[in-house]
Amino acid sequence: MTRLHDLAVLQLEQYDTKRYLVSRLKADEAVVERINWTARLKLTNALAYLFGVKLANIIISLGSGIIERFVWKWVQLRIAKLKQGGLRVVAFAGSYGKTSVKHASYEYLRHKYNVVATPESFNTVLGIAKCLRYEVDEKTQVFLVEVGAYHVGEIARLLRMVQPEIGVLTGIARQHLERFGSYQNIISAKLEIAEYVQSSGGLLIANGSDNVVRENVEKLRIKPIWYRGKSRSEINLAGGQEVAKVLSVTNFNVRVRGVKNRFEMTTERYEMAVIDDSFSSNDVGFASALEYLGQQIKYTRILVTPGLVELGSESKSIHEQLGKRIIGQADYVMLVGRNERTRSLARGIGRQVKVIYIEKTLEFMQVVRSLKLNKEPLILLENDVTENY
Hints:
Elements: H1 3-12, H2 17-23, H3 39-51, H4 53-84, E1 88-93, H5 98-109, E2 115-117, H6 125-135, E3 142-146, H7 154-162, E4 166-169, H8 177-180, H9 183-190, H10 192-200, E5 203-207, H11 211-219, E6 225-227, H12 232-246, E7 264-266, E8 273-277, H13 283-295, E9 300-305, H14 315-326, E10 332-336, H15 340-349, E11 354-358, H16 364-370, E12 377-382
Parallel strand pairs: 1-3, 1-4, 2-3, 4-5, 5-6, 8-12, 9-10, 9-12, 10-11
Antiparallel strand pairs: 7-8
Helix pairs in contact: 1-2, 1-3, 3-4, 4-6, 4-7, 5-12, 13-14, 14-15
């Protein structure tokens, strides 16, 4: 193993030492070509000459942990002060839909309020702190904050930091299952937002179209504001509207554009009709996207996917189930890479749909052009896992 290989694997595993130790022996040497020399990786590299990659990362992690504690406290105090001046804080948690519902909320609210939303998927202590430092001031009336997690307890900690009076639970699915350890842990982690607003006297807005959300929130004996819809985009817009209603906004004659790479309809980026759902995925979102694709019968329906990552021991069974759901919803399936995920999808599909293997996601454009199709193609890009996985 070369030092560069270890650095690449460490970065791939997001500097999680335990995951790094498990993955370093399995990762291909080609990961070195995709090293992104961030400030942290440069520092790790420098210390690695003295202590080795593993110990260097542990040293930096300890230092980062200390810094993060100070930042966490600064954010908490800063938001508490701003709330005294009238700031309203809305937090968004869930396995999927956080960014889209937050975006819809922002679009509805910004015509009445001075509102700031954490950009893209900034949902950690440092990401939230950066937004607070540079974008939020005494004139800000509403702060929309996305909170994310890989472990039980992380959402609760972020909520104690940002102190929302309104919490939004957007959905629960088998995402980051390997990191959480079990599906029940995922459910427990996402419910932390419901428990927080319950204990703090706040208000919960929850996705009533998600059966898992509905069943588990009802067990907590909380009376939330439910939002529902028939399609993913309709559900996300409904969530944004409920947030707006709570904050006394009733004008919804606003065009809300989709968030880039999150079920985004585009014809320009790829020079053909594409549903770009490549940012990330989970079993619920995958199934929802497939259902929509299946309805588009005027097109030749093409699914392009590398499958889902971080599903741990359930990866084979989940991918086989998803493979079965593809039948009847797509005319062609392009599987990115040959690995356990794509092989499991192929087993589920069987011989019911034409399967084509490609090495990289963007190869789909060349393959589609080479196919002799009777109808215009519509491509669903479901997830875009880097080749590192």
